[in-house]
Amino acid sequence: MSDKFINQVYWDSGAEAYYTGSQISSSARQRIHFVNRLMEASASIIEWESATSYQAAKTVPALPILQVNHQYRLVVGLKTDPAQTVLIRLDFFNLQGDRIKRLEFYNPNHQFVYPVGAYSYKISLINAGATELDFSRLQIADAQTPAAAFADLWPQGLHRSAAMPHDRFCFLVRDGKQSRSRDTGLAAQFGQFSYQVVNVAWQFTGDLVAELGTHFAELNGEKLHLVSTTPATDQTVAQFCALHPKVDGMVTDQCSDPDLAHYEWTGNTSWYSPELVEPDWLTISRAVKQQWKEG
Prior knowledge:
Number of strands: 18
Order of helices and strands: EEEEEHEEEEEEEEEHEHEHEEH
CATH topology of the largest domain: Jelly Rolls
Number of helices: 5
Distance between the termini: 28 Å
Largest sheet: 7 strands, antiparallel
CATH architecture of the largest domain: Sandwich
C-alpha cells in the first residue's frame, strides 16, 4: 500500500556535532536552534555517516543505503544567520575507507549521483561564517521526486471518480519520523470515490486548519469529506468541521471531542493502533463505506 520514498534524518540521528562553546536547544519536534559566535570557519558543525561500527560507537548508521550510479536529491531543512554561511559537504568513501569524491554546495536543495566505487558516504554541515542556525531535518530521495513532496504539508494528487464526481474524500496522514510514504494501490479500496491523501510532517508547526482551508478554498461544487487516519489529526478535523459546517468529518475512536456529535458525518472508528506504522487502509475503507451507506 505504501512506498517509503523519502528518508528523513535528524540532528540527533547518531550524528557527531560541534559542542564546544555551542548553545543548542531542541523543540519537542526535534527542530534545532544552534548558536556559536566563536566557532572558527571551516569547522564541522555536525556530520552524519552511512557506515559506523556498532561495537565501537554503539549507534546504527544515520544515513540510508544508496544505489551506485543512481541520482538522488538531498533537501536540507536549514536557515542560517547570516544567510548562506553554512556549506553542505558530501564525502564518498570506498571499501577501504579512502575518500573517492567530495561535493560542496550552499544550495539546500541539491541533486547528486552516488558514484561508482562508493561503499559509504558522509554528510557534513561546515561553518562558513554562521553565528547561528535553525535545522529541521535532512531528506534524501530519488531525484525525480516532486519538489512539493518535501514540504511539511503535501497534498498528493487527486484521484477523480466518474461514479461520484461531486464528493471528495480527503485522508489526513501524519508522517512517521524516519520516512515519508507515497500511498499507492488505494484505488482498490477507494476507487469508487474521488479521493486525495494529504501528508503532514510530524515536525509541522503551522496552522493546519488554516492551511487546509486555503487548499480546499475552491472545490468547484464538490462535497468534502475529511478523514483523520490517526489521533494526531483528529482535532484538526474537528476544528475544520466547526469552521466549515458543510464539511463532513470522520475521526478515530481515540477522539473524545463532544462537539463531534453535532457534525453531520462522523465516525467512532477503531482503525488506529499504536503498533501500526502506516494507516490501516482496509479498515478505514470499510468504515468510510459504511458511513456513506448510512448517510
